[in-house]
C-alpha cells in the first residue's frame, strides 16, 4: 500500500523503511498513519524522495509520532518563534549545552515538517521558503536572547556612550535569509551591529561594547554552527560583513555608515538589497537599514549597476567552469543566480527613483518590474515559472539527505528521486523541462545584463577607430586633425581643437580613475562620430553643438553613473547629440541637471507627453514615496518633475510634433500642477504651526479659503521656456473672530501672508535641483507697496474704485489656477464683473496708447538693425494691447468674451461677431503666431527675443497698420 504508486527503482528502499518503522514504532502509531488518508497517501513519496525524513522517523520514533499527532504536518505553521520559545521553556534552567542540543532537535523536527509538506505537494514555494526563513530567524533570536542574558551577568550591561541607554546586538540577515527565501540546506549570511560605542557597567571590570558584542557574536555563531552529536542548526557565514574576514565581527552604527560611504564595493550594494533585521533590537536595526538605504539605492538611475553585475557574473562563470559546476542549479547557465541578477539589476538602477522596487522578495519585485514596463509580461511569467521550478528542484535535491548542494545528481537513484519529486516520469523529462526554463532565463538575462547596445555598424568600425585616434593623439596645432574636422563639416576648426585640448588637459580629466578614463575614451570618440554623422547644414550650429557636447561630458565625467549610462545605452548618447545640435537650451539643461539624461532612455517616452489632466496624478505618484515631512526632498522632486516634462515638450516642439500653441498649453499645465502642489505643501506647513484659518459668520465657524491667480503669460496659457509666473494671492476671510484654531493662533491675515511667502519660497528657492519659477506678485492691488495677500472684499473694492485701466487690462489674461474651488469661482466672478464694466471707447484707447508708450520707452531694445519681438513697435505687446483694449470696450455688450484669457481665441471671437474685419483678425493672429514661434525658437537657443529688423518688415507693418487704425 505504501509503495503502490512509486517507480520500481524507489519501491524497494521505501518498503525496507516501512518494515523497519513498523518494528520500532508502536502499533497504534502505525495504524494512525494508515487510518489518516493524507499521511497514508503521502508517506511513500516523501520517504522515496527524502531518505532524510525517513531516517528521522526511524531514529526518532517518539519525536516523529509527536509531530504526526500534533497536526502541524497538515497545516501551515505560522509562529515558529512562539513554538520554539515554548519548546525551550521545557529545558529550564537553560545552559549552553542544553541550548545547543534543544535547538538542533527543534531544527531537525521542523525541517522534517517543512520537507514533508514540500515533497508531498501540500506547500507552495513561498510557504516553504518562508517557513525555512522563519526557522532561521527563531533559532538566531532564541540563541541571541539566551547568550545576551548570560553575558550581561558576566560582563555587565553594555551602555551607549551618547544616549546612556542599554545596547543590544542587531543581527542582519543577508541573501536568501534576508529575502525570506531560504532554501532547504542553506548557509545563513549574517552581519552583526550595535547602535553605539561605550562600555559595560560591571562591578568588576568594564569592557568596551565592542568586546561585549564580539564575544556575544562568537557565542551565537558557535551555538548555531558547531556540529555536535545532534548535528548543527545552521552554517553561519560572516564574510559579507564590512571588510570581510579581516573586519571586526561586530561594528557600531557610525563605523558601519562610514564603511559603506567610503570603502564598500559594488557587490556590497547588491548584497544589501536583501538585508533584513532577523534578530535583536528590531527598531534600532530598521534605523540602521534606513541610514544605509542611500548607499544601496541611488537617487538617480544608476546604470553602473549593469557593469558591476556583469563583472560579478563573469567571475561566477569563471569559478563555475573551473570547478565544473555547469550542472549547478544556482550558478550554472540559466540558473537561480541569473534570475536574481535579471531582477536585482533593475532594483539597483531604479530603486532610488521607484521605491516600490526596494523589495527583498524576488517574486514581488518581478511583478513590479512588469508593472513599470521594465520586463514584458512574457518575460515576467517565464522568469517566475523558471524560478519556481529551479527553487523547487533545489529544495527537493537538498531534502534527499539534508545536504547543501545545488549540483544535479549523477547517479540513477537520486536522479529518479529528484525527477519523481518534481512530478516528472523520468530523468529525461525532468532535464527537458529544466533546459526549457534555463533557456528562458538565459534569454532574459542576456537581454537585460549581458550585451551593451551597439549603434555602430561593422562598416563604420574603421571610422570609429579614426575618431578614437583623433581624441587620444590630437595636438592643438595638428594639421591632420584640422583637416579631419573640416572634412567632417565643422567650421571653426582651430577653436574646436582648442576646446578639445583644454578639456583633455582639464583638472576634471586628470582626476579620473583608470576605469573612468577608459569610459571617457569610449564616449568622446563616439560622440564626435555621432555628431559628424548628423551632417547638419548649419555649420555654426554644428560647431556650437561640438562645444555643448564637450561641456556636457565634462560636467558628467566624474559622475560614473552617467558615463556608464552612455556606454550601456549608446542610443541615449545618440539622442543627446541630436538634442544638443538642435537646442542650446536643452544642452544647458542637461549639463546643469544630468538627471535629465534619464528621460532619454526610451526614445518613444521622450515624445510621449502626458495629457495635462494626468499631470497632477503623475506628480502625486512621484512624490508619494517621499517622507511627508521632508519638504526639501519634495521640492527637489518637484524640480525634477518640471525639468523632465518641460524637456519632453521642448523635444516635441523641436521635432515638429507640437505647435507653439499646444506647447504653451502644456507648459502652462505643468506650471499649474506645480503651483497647486506648492500651495498644498505650504498650507500643511503653516497650518501645522498655527492651525486652520477660520472666521465666524452668523454664529457659524467657517474655514477661510484661499486661491492663487495667474496673470500674464501663465494666465493667458501662453507660457514659454523660462517664463516667470505673475501671481496674485486672495483669501475670503471675513466676519468676526478671524484667526487660526491652533495652539499658536494668529490672525488670518498673518496666516495668509506666511502662506504666500511659503509658496513663493517653494517655487523660487534654489536647491540642488535648481528652482521652479521666478515669481512676480507685483500685479496685486497697490503693487509692491500693497499687501501680499488681499481679501476678496478689498480686491473687489480696489478693482471697482482704485484700479488703473492697465490693471483691468491685466485681468484679461488672469485665471485662478490653485486653491479652494469656491474662491476660484469667486475670483472668476469678480474678473467677469470688472471686465464687463461699461467704458468710454475713446478713453480706453487714450489710456492704452499712454501705457503702451511708457512701456516702449522703458523696455524696447530695438535698434535700426534689431527688432525687439516683444516690446518693439509692431511687436507682441502691441497685439496684446489691441486685443485687451477691444475687450474692455466690448465686454459690456458681449459678456461671454470673458470666458477666455488667450489672445488668439479673443481675435476669433471678434471676427465671429464682426467687430473687427477678417483681414484684421487674420493678420494680427498670423503675426502673433509667428512672433510666439520665433520667441520659442530663440528661447530654445538661449537667445533673447531679438531678431534682424529686415526679416519682420511685412509682419510689423501689418501690426502697426492695425494699431494706428484701432488705437491711435
Automatic annotation (TrEMBL):
Domain of life assignment: Bacteria
Enzyme Commission number(s) from the entry: 2.7.7.89, 2.7.7.42
Keyword line: ATP-binding, Magnesium, Multifunctional enzyme, Nucleotide-binding, Nucleotidyltransferase, Transferase
Molecular functions (GO terms): [glutamate-ammonia-ligase] adenylyltransferase activity; [glutamine synthetase]-adenylyl-L-tyrosine phosphorylase activity; ATP binding; magnesium ion binding
Region (Adenylyl removase): 1-452
Enzyme kind, highest EC tier: transferase
Pfam families on file: GlnD_UR_UTase (PF08335), GlnE (PF03710)
Domain PII-uridylyltransferase/Glutamine-synthetase adenylyltransferase: residue ranges: 310-448, 844-942
Catalytic activity annotation: [glutamine synthetase]-O(4)-(5'-adenylyl)-L-tyrosine + phosphate = [glutamine synthetase]-L-tyrosine + ADP; [glutamine synthetase]-L-tyrosine + ATP = [glutamine synthetase]-O(4)-(5'-adenylyl)-L-tyrosine + diphosphate
Annotated ranges, domain Glutamate-ammonia ligase adenylyltransferase repeated: 43-289, 573-829
Keyword Magnesium in record: yes
Protein's GO biological process: regulation of glutamine family amino acid metabolic process
One cellular component (GO) term of this entry: cytosol
Keyword RNA-binding carried by entry: no
Cofactor: Mg(2+)
Region: Adenylyl transferase, residue numbers: 464-968
HAMAP family with a match to the protein in the record: GlnE (MF_00802)
Family: Belongs to the GlnE family.
Record function comment: Involved in the regulation of glutamine synthetase GlnA, a key enzyme in the process to assimilate ammonia. When cellular nitrogen levels are high, the C-terminal adenylyl transferase (AT) inactivates GlnA by covalent transfer of an adenylyl group from ATP to specific tyrosine residue of GlnA, thus reducing its activity. Conversely, when nitrogen levels are low, the N-terminal adenylyl removase (AR) activates GlnA by removing the adenylyl group by phosphorolysis, increasing its activity.
Protein name (record): Bifunctional glutamine synthetase adenylyltransferase/adenylyl-removing enzyme
Amino acid at each position: 500500500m505504501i509503495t503502490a504508486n512509486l517507480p520500481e527503482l524507489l519501491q524497494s528502499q521505501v518498503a525496507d523503511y516501512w518494515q523497519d518503522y513498523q518494528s520500532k514504532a508502536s502499533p497504534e502509531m502505525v495504524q494512525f498513519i494508515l487510518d489518516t488518508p493524507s499521511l497514508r497517501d503521502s508517506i511513500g513519496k516523501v520517504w522515496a524522495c527524502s531518505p532524510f525524513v525517513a531516517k528521522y522517523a526511524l531514529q526518532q520514533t517518539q519525536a516523529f509520532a509527536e509531530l504526526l499527532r500534533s497536526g502541524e504536518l497538515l497545516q501551515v505553521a505560522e509562529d515558529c518563534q512562539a513554538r520554539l520559545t515554548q519548546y525551550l521553556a521545557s529545558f529550564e534552567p537553560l545552559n549552553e549545552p542544553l541550548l545547543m542540543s534543544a535547538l538542533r532537535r527543534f531544527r531537525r523536527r521542523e525541517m522534517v515538517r517543512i520537507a514533508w509538506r514540500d515533497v508531498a505537494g501540500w506547500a507552495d514555494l513561498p510557504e516553504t521558503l518562508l517557513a525555512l526563513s522563519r526557522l532561521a530567524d527563531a533559532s538566531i533570536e532564541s540563541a541571541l536572547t539566551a547568550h545576551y542574558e548570560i553575558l550581561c551577568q558576566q560582563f555587565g550591561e553594555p551602555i551607549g556612550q551618547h544616549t546612556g541607554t542599554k545596547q543590544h546586538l542587531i543581527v542582519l540577515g543577508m541573501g536568501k535569509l534576508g529575502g525570506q527565501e531560504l532554501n532547504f540546506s542553506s548557509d545563513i549570511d549574517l552581519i552583526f551591529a550595535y547602535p553605539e560605542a561605550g562600555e559595560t557597567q560591571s562591578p568588576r571590570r568594564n569592557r568596551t561594547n565592542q568586546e561585549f558584542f564580539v564575544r556575544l557574536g562568537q557565542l551565537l555563531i558557535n551555538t548555531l554552527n558547531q556540529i555536535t552529536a545532534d548535528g548543527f542548526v545552521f552554517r553561519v557565514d560572516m564574510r559579507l560583513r564590512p571588510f570581510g574576514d579581516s573586519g571586526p565581527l561586530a561594528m557600531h552604527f557610525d563605523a558601519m555608515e562610514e564603511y559603506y560611504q567610503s570603502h564598500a564595493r559594488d557587490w556590497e550594494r547588491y548584497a544589501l538589497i536583501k538585508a533584513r533585521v532577523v534578530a535583536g533590537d528590531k527598531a534600532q536595526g530598521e534605523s540602521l537599514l534606513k541610514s544605509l538605504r542611500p548607499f544601496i539605492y541611488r537617487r538617480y538611475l544608476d546604470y553602473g549597476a549593469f557593469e558591476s553585475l556583469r563583472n560579478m557574473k563573469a567571475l561566477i562563470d569563471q569559478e563555475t567552469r573551473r570547478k565544473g559546476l555547469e550542472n549547478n542549479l544556482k550558478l550554472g547557465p540559466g540558473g537561480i543566480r541569473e534570475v536574481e541578477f535579471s531582477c536585482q539589476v533593475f532594483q539597483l538602477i531604479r530603486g532610488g527613483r521607484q521605491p516600490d522596487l526596494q523589495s527583498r522578495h524576488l517574486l514581488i519585485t518581478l511583478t513590479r518590474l512588469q508593472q513599470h514596463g521594465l520586463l514584458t509580461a512574457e518575460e515576467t511569467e517565464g522568469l517566475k515559472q523558471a524560478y519556481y521550478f529551479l527553487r523547487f528542484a533545489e529544495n527537493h535535491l537538498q531534502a534527499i539527505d539534508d545536504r547543501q548542494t545545488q549540483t544535479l545528481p549523477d547517479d540513477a537513484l537520486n536522479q529518479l528521486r529528484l525527477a519523481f519529486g518534481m512530478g516528472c516520469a523520468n530523468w529525461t523529462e525532468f532535464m527537458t523541462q529544466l533546459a526549457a526554463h534555463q533557456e528562458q532565463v538565459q534569454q532574459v538575462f542576456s537581454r537585460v545584463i549581458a550585451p551593451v547596445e551597439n549603434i555602430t555598424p561593422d562598416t563604420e568600425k574603421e571610422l570609429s577607430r579614426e575618431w578614437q585616434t583623433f581624441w587620444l593623439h590630437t595636438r592643438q596645432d595638428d594639421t591632420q586633425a584640422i583637416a579631419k574636422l573640416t572634412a567632417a563639416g565643422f567650421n571653426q576648426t582651430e577653436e574646436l581643437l582648442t576646446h578639445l585640448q583644454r578639456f583633455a588637459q582639464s583638472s576634471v580629466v586628470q582626476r579620473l580613475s583608470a576605469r573612468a578614463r577608459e569610459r571617457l575614451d569610449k564616449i568622446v570618440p563616439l560622440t564626435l562620430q555621432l555628431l559628424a554623422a548628423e551632417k547638419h547644414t548649419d555649420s555654426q550650429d554644428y560647431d556650437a553643438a561640438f562645444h555643448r557636447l564637450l561641456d556636457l561630458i565634462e560636467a558628467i565625467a566624474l559622475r560614473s553613473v552617467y558615463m556608464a549610462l552612455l556606454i550601456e545605452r549608446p542610443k541615449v548618447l545618440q539622442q543627446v547629440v541630436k538634442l544638443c545640435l538642435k537646442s542650446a537650451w536643452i544642452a544647458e539643461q542637461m549639463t546643469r541637471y544630468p538627471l535629465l539624461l534619464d528621460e532619454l532612455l526610451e526614445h518613444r517616452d521622450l515624445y510621449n507627453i502626458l495629457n495635462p489632466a494626468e499631470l497632477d496624478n503623475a506628480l502625486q505618484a512621484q512624490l508619494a514615496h517621499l517622507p511627508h515631512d521632508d519638504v526639501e526632498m519634495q521640492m527637489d522632486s518637484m524640480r525634477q518633475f518640471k525639468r523632465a516634462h518641460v524637456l519632453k515638450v521642448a523635444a516635441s516642439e523641436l521635432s515638429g510634433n507640437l505647435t507653439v500653441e499646444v506647447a504653451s498649453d502644456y507648459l502652462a499645465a505643468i506650471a499649474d500642477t506645480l503651483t497647486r502642489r506648492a500651495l498644498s505643501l505650504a498650507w500643511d506647513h503653516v497650518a501645522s504651526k498655527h492651525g486652520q484659518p477660520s472666521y465666524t459668520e452668523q454664529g457659524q465657524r467657517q474655514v477661510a479659503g484661499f486661491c492663487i491667480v495667474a496673470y500674464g503669460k501663465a494666465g493667458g496659457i501662453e507660457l514659454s521656456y523660462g517664463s516667470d509666473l505673475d501671481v496674485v494671492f486672495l483669501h475670503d476671510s471675513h466676519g468676526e473672530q478671524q484667526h487660526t484654531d491652533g495652539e499658536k493662533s494668529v490672525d488670518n491675515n498673518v496666516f495668509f501672508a506666511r502662506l504666500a511667502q511659503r509658496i513663493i519660497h517653494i517655487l523660487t528657492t534654489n536647491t540642488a535641483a535648481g528652482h521652479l519659477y521666478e515669481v512676480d506678485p507685483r500685479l496685486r492691488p497697490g503693487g509692491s507697496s500693497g499687501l501680499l495677500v488681499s481679501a476678496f472684499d478689498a480686491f473687489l473694492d480696489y478693482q471697482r474704485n482704485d484700479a488703473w485701466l492697465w490693471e483691468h487690462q491685466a485681468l484679461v489674461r488672469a485665471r485662478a489656477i490653485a486653491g479652494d474651488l469656491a474662491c476660484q469661482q469667486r475670483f472668476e466672478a469678480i474678473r467677469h464683473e470688472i471686465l464687463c464694466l461699461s467704458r468710454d471707447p475713446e478713453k480706453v484707447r487714450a489710456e492704452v496708447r499712454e501705457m503702451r508708450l511708457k512701456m516702449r520707452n522703458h523696455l524696447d531694445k530695438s535698434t535700426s538693425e534689431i527688432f525687439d519681438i516683444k516690446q518693439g513697435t509692431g511687436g507682441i505687446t502691441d497685439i496684446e494691447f489691441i486685443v485687451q483694449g477691444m475687450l474692455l470696450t466690448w465686454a459690456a455688450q458681449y459678456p461671454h468674451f470673458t470666458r477666455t484669457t488667450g489672445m488668439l481665441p479673443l481675435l476669433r471671437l471678434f471676427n465671429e461677431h464682426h467687430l473687427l474685419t477678417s483681414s484684421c483678425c487674420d493678420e494680427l493672429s498670423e503675426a502673433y503666431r509667428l512672433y510666439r514661434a520665433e520667441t520659442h525658437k530663440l528661447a530654445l537657443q538661449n537667445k533673447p527675443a531679438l531678431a534682424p529688423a529686415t526679416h519682420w518688415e511685412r509682419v510689423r507693418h501689418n501690426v502697426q497698420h492695425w494699431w494706428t487704425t484701432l488705437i491711435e
